[in-house]
Amino acid sequence: MPLDATHDPQRRSWLASAETEGTDFPVQNLPYGRFRRTGSDEPWRIGVAIGDQILDLRLASASGAWQGVEAERLAPDLQPLAGGDLNAFMARGPAAWQAVREALSEGLTAGSARQAALQPCLVAQADAEMGLPFSVGDYTDFYAGIHHARTVGALFRPDAPLLPNYRWVPIGYHGRASSIGVSPQAVRRPWGQQAPVPAEAGTPRFGPTQRLDYELELGAVIGLPNPLGEPVSIEQAQAHLFGLVLLNDWSARDVQGWEYQPLGPFLSKNFASTVSPWVVTMAALEPFRRPFERAVDDVQPLPYLDGVENRARGALDIQLEVRLQTASMRERGLPAQRLMQSNAQDAYWTLAQLVAHHTVGGCNLAPGDLLGTGTLSGPRPEQGGSLLELTAGGKQRLTLAHGETRAFLEDGDTVELRGRCEQPGARSLGFGPCRGTVLPARER
Ligand code: MN
Description:
alpha+beta, SH3 type barrels, Fumarylacetoacetate hydrolase, domain 2, 2 domains
């Protein structure tokens, strides 16, 4: 996917808020979300974020901004968007995605003749509530962050932190789509079984998790489907990837520790997962691609997980961070505190490798399928993408700036994930926040 005029860092929007320093949503981004006016019972609309506004694509389609041959050409691509169905739009594939991106970018650019038609189609983000941007089909969670895998592995197996398959197989499991929610999400502390104490004997404990954690991940959204039995090659993978969201894979570590062998996580991960409301397209992320290289002394991927394009541009330079605001901080008017920073390009597997691996046995992916990357920790200890890592399994409590401490999450804590791309020669953009707040466990 080459860079084009939609990536031009000089391109400016006629909308002033899209030009403010530090905005996540300049005209080079144009992420898709699903919204309605707060408190209304209007049907959900698909919109594109621009500055502090949303361009309502139902209104924009009917606005007369595009006329004649142009309108005819765009109509089949805009129709699913006008109808509020992002999945149907994603299923149309890269040519449709690009046609709409070019049209919206041009229409929102300063000097566009379409400004007068599009201006009335804006809704303030402050006046909107966001829904899940797409209907999530199947959800798979991978384990592509090697620094996370190594640190967590060392907590459980000090002698063998990385299992021998890690460098060959993009490890993953099939997760639960029904409990995926959108930011800002209220997440109820789950109940579950936890290991008996002492570990060797006795009845397991049953109660609210005492080791509630977050995981900093990206979620890749599948656009173009592949038929059952027809693998997607690593070269074709990009055409199937529509975009990315931030993903908090909430985890109950005590439940996980007791249940995960031999078949992997189950109830410890299926009570809630939170995604950010805006799907940042792969097209928008194009200027932030990076070479993907394995060290020469590392094992090299099998041929089906290797490719020229993947080596040249398979990684993504996305700065990630986690912030925490406790209930007490909120009461005192203190902002969320940053707990860590990492970068998605430190992942051990690329998105194209995840798609190629997922389908290599013939598995069919569908529009709206979500592939979690796994926790994206950095190489240094302070770059852990979960509390499990930052507190060494709960043994070293974190001290927050105002004096509170945390081993794991407490009721009232708000976890916020952030993602941002900054690169010389490109316009900076971001994902908007992904927030979730812990509610107390249900009484029973
Ligand atoms: Mn995870």
